[in-house]
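Exercise: predict the fold of this chain.
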Amino acid sequence: MTHRAFRPFRPQLRLEARFQVLSRRIADFSGTAIAFTCALGCVLVWLLTGPLFHFADGWQLVINTGTTIITFLMVFLIQNAQNEDTRELHAKLDAVLQELRAERNMMHDPELLQLTPEQLLQEARAGD
């Protein structure tokens, strides 16, 4: 009988959940000074190797290909992170509006339920 190391129970994350975590981490990291410094360092190394490779087409192709691939992938990762932020923001705004409606006894007034969020906020401010 073999002895297995104890591993705490951890449910397997679905592919989408893993992607959410990865995209959030990369989007958060991409806005840091460390990420900028790494990118700048890559460009400087590329520039300094220009004379070594006689500024050949292959040398230029390296930076063009690298930046294109990174940009292509970052578009999807950052868009995913922004979509998540937008969903969270809308959920919070919906909760605030529900509270305002409940506080002002607006829940059962059909006329007030037809108002836009901006109109509801104006109505709530006018009641203060």
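Check your answer against the key: The chain has a mean pLDDT of 82.
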